[in-house]
Amino acid sequence: MAAAEDAAPAREEGPGEAPLPSVPPDPKEPEPEQDPTPAPGGAAPGGTAPPPRPRSSSIVVSPRQRGNPVLRFIRNVPWEYGDVVPDYVLGQSSCALFLSLRYHHLHPDYIHGRLRELGRGFVLRVLLLQVDVDPQRALKDLAKICVLSNCTLLLAWSPEEAARYLETYKAFEQKPPDLLQERRERSFVPRMSDCLTSIRAVNRTDALSLLSTFGSLAALVAATKEDLSLCPGVGPQKAKRLFDVLHEPFLQTPK
Fold this sequence. Notes:
The chain has nine helices and six strands. By secondary structure, it is an alpha/beta fold. Strands 2-1-3-4-5-6 form a six-stranded mixed β-sheet, with helices on both faces. Helix 5 crosses helix 6. The protein starts with about 60 loop residues before the first strand and ends in a 9-residue tail after the last helix. About 25% of the residues are buried.
């Protein structure tokens, strides 16, 4: 299911009919000339970015998601229902729409209406797709829709996996980017050891032995097969393999 089972499909505009706004104006109150406050989850008037939303420690869930099995598996971060346009508000500038591939096959126009309704009020917009039927061509079409809509496509193969994605986005909302990046050693020996062990048959002990024997990568590259084979722990087979890799051209010439 895309939202909950009771989610109504998006309204299709008739010929020459303008799309409905996310939140219709109140006819009892005069509309101000410039209202800087955007509709919940929508863009501010004039296409400008909305003001920052107040921080919340919970995932804000749209009532249309009521009954979605994904909610049963969101256990590591709090969540609460709220009057929001996206299915899930994950932070001040990030949100997610939920769609099951089975529902998309039955209602292919649903996601177009949801994306129009969502607008550009969020910097990060995620389409969380639960793959519950054979993807076939639909996956390619949805990927194209996400590219054209500046939306990130995430695939989940179960409600549990979908819940983990939502929890992770919320848990890392205020974390620095370098926390997610791979930690790399800055010193010479660990970096060279990682480089040499990427060669098949060369283990970390061999790498340390080669570095202690030759002292630098330049000396290692200049060594002959015989010199490499004399290194403790490196026999003729490893020496040949290492020599061939170090002297293999970067560009393959056509035969």
